[in-house]
């Protein structure tokens, strides 16, 4: 009978949020968008502008420039495709180190509607201050996968090493929430220079599970011949759990944002901002069976870390006329911090290739414009923008094809378990975001802003109401 390898790592573990290889986290990439429909419509380019209540998040130094005490509330809606590009299929070897990916994808769409931001800013003293509530993370999704087979390994010097390898059927769920309340203050050091700080109290809720199932081998490998005794033994177990991971987190932490804003004249400003993000803890439980004896393994428990990466950025804002604003922003997000606290549930403890899962820091580019039409009964602002979201998930240092080809130990024996670490680069892709929106000022006190952020995998919409006293 052919040797069979249960690849319990599935296809990839490039989930970002939980910094672990629980498959429910696959391709969940955190976005650090500034709140508010106006900022969203302008591509999030707000560090150098920071001239409304959402400066609390973008650059708290901007609060010092606000003239009116303000209340703002935002309603948001996000549609996610949740595309799984390896829902099912096969991977075939066409040459020694050349592989053909015949994979089928499938969408598992999710829609989230919430109130992501509410704030009050008081400008009646020289120290401008505000309080707020923000929803920084709100993810919930379910998806499943069917089996995927990968090329068997044949070592000409070790003919007995004829191994069938595959990734099993699976079922996944994740619900991640991070809600923040805090206080922010901005102070003008001079007429041109202001500073600000935001203190956040963050509440973290994290629940999820990954379940891998024992497959129907005859259906998964239709061209293979199996020992009838093996098929009879495995038939009652088809669909039973092969490995399961459950996570449950409920933690709180404090974080701080800080900013500087310099405006040498009314038409130009430049801002700098830094965001120190929190780290949380979550509990996990793992269950599984011994793939040789098919007996249940002892349940293991532990504690993992969820680290939000820090970021810093710079932005400029230029007003060539009183009715036109142009804004640019560059953000550096320290995603390399994610690899410091990575929890591997399915890792091979002895890695012959010394492979590591790493992620580099990325640079996001944001640009936005605003044009105000004053010839209408109520002033109308038209906005548009763009921002680049580089791929920022944990990946293997080794190429996918290198790992598929396989590594051997010092004796030359193939270590098939190393193949569990594949496909972290196969589907990496940057994402372009196109944004647009409008704002309507009704009288001296009330304004309404709408915005849309459209990308390949995600579409976000926002409605903000603003009241100025």
UniProtKB/TrEMBL annotation:
Its main location: membrane. InterPro entries: OMPP1/FadL/TodX (IPR005017). Gene3D superfamilies: Outer membrane protein transport protein (OMPP1/FadL/TodX). GO terms for cellular component: cell outer membrane. It comes from the Bacteria. Keywords: Cell outer membrane, Membrane, Signal, Transmembrane, Transmembrane beta strand. It is a multi-pass membrane protein. GO terms for molecular function: long-chain fatty acid transporting porin activity. It is found in: Cell outer membrane. Residues 1-18 form the signal peptide. Belongs to the OmpP1/FadL family. This is Outer membrane protein transport protein. It comes from Sulfidibacter corallicola.
């Amino acid at each position: 009978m052919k040797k069979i390898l249960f690849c319990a790592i599935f296809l990839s573990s490039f989930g970002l949020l939980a910094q672990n290889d629980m498959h429910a986290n696959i391709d969940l990439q955190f976005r650090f968008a500034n709140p508010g429909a106006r900022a969203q419509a302008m591509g999030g380019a707000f560090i150098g502008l920071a001239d409304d209540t959402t400066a609390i998040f973008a650059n708290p130094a901007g609060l010092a420039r606000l003239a009116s005490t303000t209340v703002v509330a935002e309603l948001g809606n996000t549609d996610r495709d949740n595309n799984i590009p390896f829902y099912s299929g096969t991977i075939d070897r066409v040459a020694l180190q050349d592989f053909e990916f015949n994979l089928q994808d499938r969408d598992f769409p999710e829609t989230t509607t919430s109130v992501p931001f509410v704030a009050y800013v008081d400008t009646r003293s020289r120290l401008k201050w505000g309080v707020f509530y923000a929803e920084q993370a709100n993810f919930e999704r379910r998806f499943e996968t069917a089996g995927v087979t990968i090329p068997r390994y044949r070592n000409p010097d070790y003919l007995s090493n004829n191994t069938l390898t595959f990734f099993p059927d699976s079922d996944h769920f994740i619900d991640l929430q991070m809600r923040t309340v805090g206080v922010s203050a901005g102070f003008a050091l001079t007429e041109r220079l202001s500073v600000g700080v935001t203190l956040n109290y963050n509440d973290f809720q994290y629940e999820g599970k990954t379940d891998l199932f024992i497959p129907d081998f005859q259906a998964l490998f239709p061209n293979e011949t199996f020992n009838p005794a093996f098929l009879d033994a495995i038939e009652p177990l088809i669909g039973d759990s092969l490995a399961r991971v459950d996570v449950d987190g409920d933690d709180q932490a404090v974080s701080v944002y800080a900013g500087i804003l310099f405006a040498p004249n009314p038409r130009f400003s430049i801002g700098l901002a830094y965001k120190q993000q929190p780290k949380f803890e979550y509990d996990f439980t793992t269950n599984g069976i011994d793939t040789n004896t098919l007996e249940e393994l002892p349940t293991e428990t532990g504690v993992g870390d969820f680290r939000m990466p820090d970021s810093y950025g710079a932005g400029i804002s230029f007003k060539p006329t009183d009715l036109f604003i142009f804004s640019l922003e560059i953000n550096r997000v320290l995603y390399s911090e994610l690899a410091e606290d990575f929890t591997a549930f399915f890792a091979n403890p002895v890695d012959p290739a010394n492979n590591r899962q790493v992620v580099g820091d990325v640079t996001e580019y944001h640009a936005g414009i605003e044009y105000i039409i004053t010839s209408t009964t109520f002033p109308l602002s038209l906005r548009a923008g763009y921002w680049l979201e580089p791929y920022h998930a944990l990946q293997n240092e080794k190429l996918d094809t290198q790992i598929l080809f396989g590594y051997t130990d010092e004796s030359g024996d193939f270590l098939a378990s190393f193949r569990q670490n594949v496909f972290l680069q196969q589907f990496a892709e940057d994402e372009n975001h196109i944004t647009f929106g409008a704002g309507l000022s009704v009288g001296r006190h009330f304004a309404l802003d709408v915005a849309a952020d459209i990308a390949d995998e995600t579409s976000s919409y926002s409605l903000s109401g603003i009241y100025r006293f």
